[in-house]
Write a structure and sequence with these properties.
Strand order of the largest sheet: 1-2-3-4-6-9
CATH topology of the largest domain: 2-enoyl-CoA Hydratase, Chain A, domain 1
Radius of gyration: 19 Å
Number of helices: 10
Helix content: 40-55%
Strand content: 15-25%
Shape: globular
CATH class of the largest domain: Alpha Beta
CATH architecture of the largest domain: Alpha-Beta Complex
């Protein structure tokens, strides 16, 4: 991998977009390498939490407009590009049976903003920002932003953010519910590490089920959700971690979950 780095330690996989000279803008290599990295950490049974971040000053500035031509020098088919490059990334994060933590170290713009919103937890530096910048080049939301944004901030606020390309500071994004936590830049590493360690020691299978349930709960009716909860609870109740959790409760000790 030349456009990102992947580090796995103590159950935590850290994926770092590594094109800092262009604010981690996406070109073909970065897109496909991120797809590959996500597949790898999903299959790796030692990985129980994932951190996604960017090298340098930015998280990701979205599509690299200098790479807007295909291999033949013709303008890129944008729909085809989404289907092949971006949509598989967003689906991989949302279908990941492990929590994905966004370490928002700087600006997240365009598809970079969508990438951050696709994560399960966003912890941001005070220096970070988010902007749905598509309208500035007469494009529309993509990579899942039209799904995540209105479900988080409501239609009217989402419409304004999308059509005006309003740049939000980390604090403003936190106040809207887009970000879970904002910390000082010097505290970002420690805050994310603490969050990742929590999930790396949590009951992974139960969290994977809850991730599916919450996503389903945003679109399904109550009866469907109640049935799905019962289905998932039956699965969770048969895991080794459930047995450990119950035993730990009876023995009045902290459970030692193994993600099984």
């Amino acid at each position: 991998m030349t456009s990102l780095t992947l580090d796995i330690q103590n159950g935590i996989a850290t994926i770092t977009l590594n094109r800092p000279d262009v604010y981690n803008a996406f070109n073909d290599p970065l897109s496909y390498e991120l797809q590959d990295a996500l597949k790898k950490v999903e299959k790796d049974t030692t990985v129980r939490a994932i951190v996604l971040t960017g090298a340098g000053k930015a998280f990701s500035s979205g599509q690299d407009l200098k790479a807007a031509m295909d291999e033949n020098g013709a303008p890129r088919n944008l729909g085809d590009s989404l289907h092949k490059r971006y949509n598989p990334i967003i689906r991989a994060i949302r279908n990941m049976p492990k929590p994905v933590i966004c370490k928002l170290n700087g600006v997240a713009a365009g598809a970079g903003c969508s990438l951050a919103l696709a994560c399960d937890i966003i912890i941001a530096s005070e220096n970070a920002s988010m902007i749905e910048i598509f309208i500035n080049i007469a494009l529309v939301l993509d990579s899942g932003s039209s799904y995540f944004l209105p479900r988080t901030v409501g239609y009217h606020r989402a419409f304004e953010l999308a059509t005006k390309a309003t740049k939000l500071t980390a604090t403003e994004a936190f106040q809207m519910g887009l970000i879970n936590k904002v910390v000082k830049p010097e505290d970002l590493d420690a805050a994310v590490q603490s969050e990742a360690e929590f999930y790396a020691n949590a009951p992974t299978k139960a969290i994977a089920l809850m991730k599916k349930m919450l996503t389903k709960g945003m679109t399904e009716d109550l009866d469907s959700v109640l049935d799905y909860e019962a289905y998932c609870q039956e699965i969770a109740g048969k895991t080794a971690d459930n047995k450990e959790g119950v035993q730990a409760f009876l023995e009045k000790r902290k459970p030692a979950f193994k993600g099984e």
